Every structure is written in structure tokens, then in C-alpha cells.
Amino acid sequence: xxIVKGSESPVxxxxxxxxxxxxxxxxxSTLASPLNEVKYDMESGGDEMVVSATHVxxxxxxxxPIPLDIIYGATVENNVLQIHTFPLHKKKRKQRDxxxxxxxxxxxxxxxxxxxxGVAISAERPKRHLLCLINPFSGAKKAEKVFEAVRHILTxxxxxxxxxxxxxxxxxxxxxxxxxxxxxxxxxxxxGDGLIYELLQGLGQHSNPDAFKMPIGHLPGGTGNAAACxxxxxSQEIMTAVSSALLINLGKTTPLDLAEVTxxxxxxxxxSFLSLTWAIVADIDLESEKCRCLGxxxxxxxxxxxxxxxxxxxxxxxxxxxxxxPLQEISGxxxxxxxxxxxxxDADACFGEVLTPDCGFMELHFVRKGTRCGLLCGFLNPKEYxxxxxxxxxxxxxxxxxxxxxxxxDSNPGLIDVDxxxxxxxxxxxxxxxxxxxxxxxxxxxxxxxxxxxxxELKQNGGGNVSTTHGNDVMTKQPRPIVKQSMV
Length: 488
Hints:
Blueprint: E1 2-4, E2 37-41, E3 48-51, E4 55-57, E5 66-67, E6 71-77, E7 80-85, E8 88-89, E9 92-93, E10 96-100, H1 105-117, E11 129-134, H2 143-155, E12 160-165, H3 171-177, E13 186-191, H4 193-204, E14 216-220, H5 226-234, H6 241-250, E15 253-263, E16 270-272, E17 275-279, H7 280-287, H8 297-308, E18 313-320, E19 328-334, E20 336-340, E21 344-346, E22 349-350, E23 362-367, H9 372-380, H10 386-392, E24 393-398, E25 400-406, E26 416-418, E27 421-423, E28 428-440, E29 447-448, H11 449-460, E30 474-475
Parallel strand pairs: 11-12, 11-13, 13-14, 29-30
Antiparallel strand pairs: 1-2, 2-3, 3-4, 4-5, 6-7, 7-10, 8-9, 15-16, 15-28, 17-20, 17-26, 18-19, 18-25, 20-23, 21-22, 23-24, 25-28, 26-27
Helix pairs in contact: 2-6, 3-4, 7-8, 9-10
């Protein structure tokens, strides 16, 4: 082996210093000195394998170098180096393993992994231990199958994993309360969104106030899979179990807004990462639970039912955009109410495209008037189904709000849904806590012009800091998300 000294190499697009994937305790990142080019002799003699900060060149693979952007790991088996690549194929990532026989396969593997991390070749590999929680009852009960299909991706860069299959409701909450934060560098949930919700409640009751800094990854194994969907959206990937596992494999994290939820007459505090819904959306989500075995289609079935048998709800919403902003109020009849922290409340429902992971505010979407046809169009896609649906859906932005619902009847007052979980039907306050949690994601989607404007306004109103996720990149028009739900 020989090392050739050279000037600092250009930074790989996927691995920028602002979001280095090299994780240490509690998800903190470090960046060592620049990577120099390294050459390894092949067993066959003659040509050499070259590892640099941007690519790997293997003689057997021809003259074209393999860009680090598609390399997600390397392993050694029987002294044969295997480089695991995941190039895009029809917008999805497909695994392609490349084998080569070099003189020092173990050292070559270390160099490739350090090149992926963007650190010096001589740097010691950090230990990375992940706790993997699987809910076998999520959605159509395929979570265990999903996990086994992508398990190898989580370990192909040297990470070790510990697997726990949850056995009862609230199991993840109990685990989160007493979690050994020094033992793990991340938690992976293979489930729907409910397991992440449970875990967050446990971390919120942990004796260490920094427990929320533990990075969380999501493998889509349930019905809605909103967490995986949004992290894929921010990372400009199509959501599949493979792409979600690759985001965890890469190790980059992003701060994520949580919301503190309190209710009248209770001292309990709930931590929400997704949404609060009321009226038709809560009815659809919670009443369709009896058909969980059908998977995501249960949502569409109940949406048709509830739109045909439309209900009116009465209530008041009080909200403000920043702690120094005036309190505003909306009262009357409501047919739909959705307050969301992140764009997608499930894989097919995008409510807030201007929202970034840690923008510090949420969007309130509600419908107070209109026809069944117009509501149906609004559910399908408010941006593409004409003026009627656009006029139906009203949108305001808030850093906190209080919902004061009025009971429909004594026997059926109504439903309030926080992150897919039923909450008591009583006045509820929802307050954003900017960037409190962390999720595994490779955020590359630039911030929209509208989002930049709203964040600046929020800061003027004393409502938080400018989002740290996207740096200073601003684009004038945010693209429609390319999201597709797929198990593998």
C-alpha cells in the first residue's frame, strides 16, 4: 500500500461539512482532517485500487470511477472486499455489490468507510450501536418482514444493532424512560408512526433532559409512515424501506420540531412530532382503526364514507405566530381541522410544503364551508382540483394554538387525534418547540422563498431562530414532492 499526498479534495455533495455523518455520543458530529488519495495493490498485480475523497477506482470495474455518492458500505468476507453501492434505477435505489481482491482488504475497507464519512484515512472508526424497535402489529403486520429485508443495510458500515420486538401498547414508552443514552448512537423504529409517538413520550419522561437528542430513524412498516415519508421528502428520495434504511446508514441527522400538547384539567404533557387533527380527518384516522389489517387503503375507504356522511363540528381556535404576536381567534362550524408540524401527515396527504424540519411553526388547515364534492377535491389535491377546493381550505401559520371544541352529542362528542393517537375531547393547547428532537435524514431540499419569509416574520415576533437545517439556500419555487410508499 502506498499513500500519495495531495491537496484538499473537493467536498462530496452528499457529505457536506455542515452535516457530517460521523456520529459520536448523542448524535454529535466531528470532522477530521481532509482525506488524501490512497492506493492499494491488487492481488493479481499490476493496476491499483484508488480511494479518494470523491470516488473509488477499481481496475476490474474498468476505468470509470465509482462515486462516493452511491457507496453506502464495505465489508470483507474471505479476504475479498465487497463495496456496497446503491445507484438510482428508475428513481429507486437498487443494491449492486462490487467485489475486488486487494492485498490489504481490511485496510482498504477502512479507507473507503472513512472516505464516505469525509474524515482522514487514518481516523479510527467510531463505534456505532443502534437500538432497533419493531412493532409486529403495525398496519398490515409486515414490519418484521420489512426489517429483515433491510437489516443488512444498517450494518454494512460496521454498526452493531440490538433488536427488541415490542409486545404491548406503551412498551416503547417504558423503554424510552430508562434508555441508556451512552449505550446507543441512534434508535430505529420499524413500524408505523405510533411507535415513534410512544418512544417520544418515554424520552420526554427520561431523567436526562437531553434524551430528545438521541437520533431516531424510521423504517416504514405501518399504515401512514409519515416520519419516513417526510425524511425521504427532505432528502429528495422516493420513500421505500431501502431508501429509509440508507438514510439511517448514512448517519446524518436533522433537528426536528416537536410540539408540547396539554389539555384542560390535566398536568400531563404530550410530545407530538406530526399533527393534531379534529373533525373529519380525526374521524377517518381513528374510526378506521378497526380495519388496520387492510393497510393504507383503510384511510381511502373511510374518507369516502365520512365525506358522504359529512358531519359539522363547532369550536373555537385561538392562535398566535410568535410569542409577541397578538392572539387571533376563529370560531364557528368546522368540517376539517389539521395542524401539522411537517408536510406529510401520511404518504398521500401533503398539507404543508413550506414547512422545514425545524422552522419553528406549524400550519393550520381547516374547512368551514363548501360541498362534499369540493371537500373531496381538497382531500385529493387542493393544488390541482380547481378553485372550489382552494377556496374551501383556509390556511394560517402559528407557533401555538388552543382548540376549544364543542361536543356534537353527549354520546358522540367528537374525536381529537394527536399523531394518530386518541386524546380526550377537551380544550387542547399545541405549542411548537423548535428543533427539540433529531431524526436521521440527509436534508438536501432547499428552503422555499415562502418558508424563508415566514421564518423571518416568526423571529420578528419573538417566536424562535432561523431554521438551521438548510443553511442559506433559497429556491423560488418548491417542487412537488416525489413520494411513493413501498415496503422494499
